[in-house]
Amino acid sequence: MAGDKADIAVLPELPPMDLAVPTRLQTADFAFG
Amino acid sequence: MGCQIGVARTRVGYAGGSTPDPTYRQIGDHAETVQIDFNPETVSYEELLELFWSSHDASRPAWSRQYMSAVFFHDEEQERLARSVKERLEGGGQRTLRTGVLPASRFYLAEDYHQKYILQGDRTLNSEFRRMYPDFADFVASASAAKVNGYLYGCGTLEQIRTQLGSLGLSAKGGEHLLARVRKF
């Protein structure tokens, strides 16, 4: 039955580090040879 | 670069050329390139430039354009800093860095198997990340995956890894596995 606990997908926890990534980032490109 | 504090994301690909839709086997005139997203409040572009030049020998000639040393700048400030740091490291003509300082053009993401390469080769850690990130693009964009991949390359200290372990999203088993691998360096 919809709404039963068994029907609710258990999502894995995401790394706290990923959840804390700031939105204002800069990009850099390097070729290391 | 992945384990450098302030570096949030890393991805590998091809840039600097004009060949459309390059691949590893048909890279054309592109160079193998690492693109990173960083937090300038935590690490400066200048620090990244120093890390870049300290982690490879840019004084030797490149085998081919595919393996050229290059900084692809995204704006005038990055260009100014790249030229300035390069000149300083050349020590007034004492050595020549054969690094191109070139405008960033289109960056082509490399094939999946190149992304987080060493992490993908670790069955235990890779399976944990793939459970967290069933969508491969999310895996590539993961700051935690970038860090762990860097650690597996031997970058970072045990102390740094222990400090960050709780934020990587790994299970206790995964964390122990990572520490055991890093201890071997």
Give your account of this protein's structure.
The complex is a heterodimer of chains A (33) and B (185). Chain A has 33 residues and is of the alpha+beta class. Chain A has one helix at residues 16-19; one strand spanning 26-32. Helices cover 39% and strands 15% of the residues of chain B. At the A-B interface, α1 and β1 of A face β1, β2, α1, β3 and α6 of B.
Per CATH, what is the topology of the largest domain in chain B?
Peptide Methionine Sulfoxide Reductase, Chain A
Straight-line distance between termini of chain B: 18 Å
Number of strands of chain B: 5
Biggest pleated sheet of chain B: 3 strands, antiparallel
- The CATH class of the largest domain in chain B: Alpha Beta
Give the largest interface pair and sizes. Answer: A-B, 20 and 48 residues
Number of helices of chain B: 8
Gist of the model:
The complex is a heterodimer of chains A (33) and B (185). By secondary structure, chain A is an alpha+beta fold.
SSE topology sketch:
The complex is a heterodimer of chains A (33) and B (185).
Chain A: H1 16-19, E1 26-32
Chain B: E1 7-15, E2 31-38, H1 45-54, E3 69-73, H2 76-89, E4 100-103, E5 108-109, H3 117-120, H4 123-132, H5 136-140, H6 143-152, H7 158-164, H8 172-183
Parallel strand pairs in B: 3-4
Antiparallel strand pairs in B: 1-2, 1-5
Helix pairs in contact in B: 1-2
List the defining traits of the structure above.
heterodimer; A: 33 residues; 21% strand; elongated; B: 185 residues; Peptide Methionine Sulfoxide Reductase, Chain A; three-stranded antiparallel sheet; globular
